[in-house]
């Protein structure tokens, strides 16, 4: 019989234990935390962030980084509103067309991102940051700095229509997470991400077209950012050029807190899901337990460090840069 | 004074100075050619125009820019004669852009500027003074820095006192709550002056309503997404105790409304601040009780106009009283009963302002506590 408490097992389950620990802590201080309604609130806050975090997980697993999410989410959210309004302004009138159009737009932005990174041989950090700025700039240009609103009740059902107490958008996110897991675990592309992240030279020498895998990774991330853009509109009923603000910090923190290693090859979708939940539980919990606002940022930083320490297998690498 | 006389004086002033400058330029170029470049002569007659501000991604700054452009067109120039210096929230960039603009135009500049944060106002004014340009600022300056300490070059500073209007919105909110219950405040970035003043306004109003408790006040950083998440957390913590919401700006109110919509909560009394078009529409629709308009279009135009007219010599800043060099901008409370009129007057048709009526709509000299 295998030992249950192996080191591997401890590391695998650490993020989940951190999450449960936090929930117990917050509930002990304020029992109101542990209620279905509050979980629904956390889920709504986490939904778009999870889509962004899953997108960037594919890139981080490859050992690259993608910082284009704020620009991409902002631009796709704004474009979604424009296409939605131009095609009738209600789902019933045919505005559903906006959904595939925007997913395609997200893929396109990701493609450009990947091509700039791979073909021009610019580090992913710089290439994606630049593409993000271009995205925000384009969103400002399109909106002229104004807010675009969507009032269609059918579309807003993503937020207002609840099944078992959770809004529809939460189920959309669950389905998307399952799709991401399927790509990661049951497709060649998913396994290739790990091959590239685990050792790029080795993958290349084994005949893998590393550049193609990288570009496809960015395309995939772009699609998930587009989903986040659409959910952001569903959540707030509006889009503006800054709709993607803060997603960079939230998503990368969540990915790392969940136990995905920034140097690539380690972790996956479920780590990210738990990581996003940890960060959102912390954000919600700090208000619910009544932590003074001037302590919240510091506490978030502290908890993130603790979570990373507990959930990353640092013994397998010789040094951290 | 009739406009005829005013125009006449203005024309004569310009003519006389042109004559003086022309003769001066003529004399010097005869004796020391090249020392006095063309730039100096342009310095007084045709200053280059610029607006230095945070970003184009908000309705507020867009309105500021539209005012600056309206002024630029009013003096017979194309809109793009006004250069936008966008600092992206960086004081360093704000100062560097202004220095570059001064250098490019030999100091012959009329600049309107929000220095981004208070300590940056002084270096901006020093740079402009050293180059011989003219600058008018809004919002940010430290209490010890005054335009009159910089001769004519720091023309004026305008800010808005938000405490009183925020108190008025709070009173409207409390009346709608029936004078009892619990209120939460979602604020701006904690260290921002307007955020502090708007919360103080709420606290002032609370003194007259003993049956209303301030349940919580936390920063939502002027951000819609953050406001929605903070409001959701407040709902977990306080639940039905919350019977009114005081928001530091319109963007925060949009987030609050969406958080309430997600819960199916309707009819919660909410007040906001800024008077953005969407918020005014919400006041008309009864979704929002009140917002406060600070007329950024006028602010954007008049700030540039002050710098420009000081630069061409229409008035000499150092001869103006202190309340003409440091003053409060206008604030207009928008509530359900006047929202439609307000929208028709200020938003549907942007009024044509007299950009030489520098201090008419302002709200008196700045008072330091």
Brief account:
Chain A has helices at residues 7-29, 36-61, 69-86, 98-119, 124-143, 153-160, 168-186, 188-198, 200-205, 210-236, 247-257, 269-288, 293-311, and strands at residues 148-149, 162-163, 166-167, 238-239. Chain A is an all-alpha fold. The mean pLDDT of chain A is 92.
Query: How do the strands of the widest beta sheet of chain A line up side by side?
Result: 1-4
Rounded Rg of chain B:
23 Å
**What's the architecture of the largest domain in chain B, going by CATH?**
3-Layer(aba) Sandwich
Strand composition percent of chain A:
under 5%
Quote the average pLDDT of chain A: 92
CATH top level of the largest domain in chain B? Alpha Beta
The share of residues in extended strands of chain B comes to 15-25%
Distance between the termini of chain B: 36 Å
Return the domain count of chain B. 2
Q: Which structural category fits the helices and strands of chain B?
A: alpha/beta
CATH fold type of the largest domain in chain B = Rossmann fold
Low-confidence stretches of chain B: 26-43
What name does CATH use for the topology of chain A? ABC transporter involved in vitamin B12 uptake, BtuC
Oligomeric description of these chains = heterodimer
How do the SSEs of chain B run, as a string of H and E? HHEHEHEHEEHEHEHEHEHEHEEH
User: What is the makeup of the main sheet of chain B?
Assistant: 6 strands, parallel
Give start-end ranges of low-pLDDT stretches of chain A.
Answer: none
Give the total of beta strands of chain A.
Answer: 4
Structural class of chain A: mainly alpha
